[in-house]
Amino acid sequence: MSHRGGFSRACLFGAVLAVWAGFSGKALASDPLPGDAIGLPPDINIGLYYNEFVGSGTFAPAHGSNITSHTKLSIDVNILRYVRTFELGGLTAGAQVVVPYEAFLSPAKVGGASLSTQSGFTQPLLGVFLFPVNDDADGRSVATGAWIFPPVSSFNKNYVVNPSNDTTTYELEAGFHQILFGDPKGSNLALEGWDEVYFFSNNKKDLYGPVPATYREQPSDEVRIYLPYVVNPAVGLFVAPGYFQSFGGKQTEALHAPAAALAPFGLTTVEDTGNRTQISELRFAAGMFLSPTLQVMGVGEYDVAGHGGFLTRSLQLRLAKFF
Fold first, then answer.
1. Considering the entire predicted model, what is its pTM?
2. Calpha distance 12→241 (Å, rounded)
3. Which of 5, 124, 194, 256 has the fewest CB atoms below 10 angstroms from its CB?
4. CA angle 215–128–247, rounded 5-degree value
5. The CATH number of the domain where 40 resides is what?
6. Percent of the chain with pLDDT over 90
7. What is the spatial distance between Cα 168 and Cα 153, in angstroms, rounded to a whole number?
8. Computed over its alpha carbons, how large is the radius of gyration of the chain?
9. Gap between the Cα atoms of 67 and 59, Å rounded
């Protein structure tokens, strides 16, 4: 969320990853990165820019073997973010807004079948956060937050792959940071964990083929574990291996047509799209301060397993300016 000290300031909240509706496997995420559970003082402004390249050559269906032949996904994600901290009841709190833009760099394909793509703005993210625990002496902190993603985006129901699902999304998150070994103000090894729960409204502007339909997504959960190690506290240099796991998020379409009319086409009134938000992913992050107020961070992510979405590989660059 926000930070204090050399390493903590190097890692604010993490990137916000957009999704491609129906084929992602990852939920719309505020995606905390290592160090995000450490609080900053109040009255701090942070402007952030993210650039992430996402690629895939594998699609993992909910059932059956992975599809690798003639499968491709390539996306460039650009994100602007503003964070403001303040004091609330003696605790550090804050608010933030995130605006992502997603551009498909090449046609998306699964098993040789081309998927129509729609580049554009994903849903903006509006969030608030609070640090109920922030103990510098023991290197212990707890962060909580809530987000809402209103259905304002470049969504177009005529495209298979979209920048968003165009549903109102609600997220609750909690994280902790605990130093295991070392000096909180010097080199140290810490354990950081996050849990995020997502709830989704229905999308009533969808189509299932030519049939009007209501898109529905079940709640999903995401867990992140990091082991950040501060190598050089003087410049905030750190490295952090991590692991990500998502659960749930089954996606269905409720077809608005009589069952008798759908039966000849092998359809029912509720169709399982086969898409889920179930991904197992390895991560590695590193960063440092280029000046007292400018930080750079790089993040690599590698999906090792999934059900109902592309298995992606991504590289991300983040710049953070504190003022």
1. 0.85
2. 16
3. 256
4. 40
5. 2.40.160.40
6. 57
7. 11
8. 20
9. 5
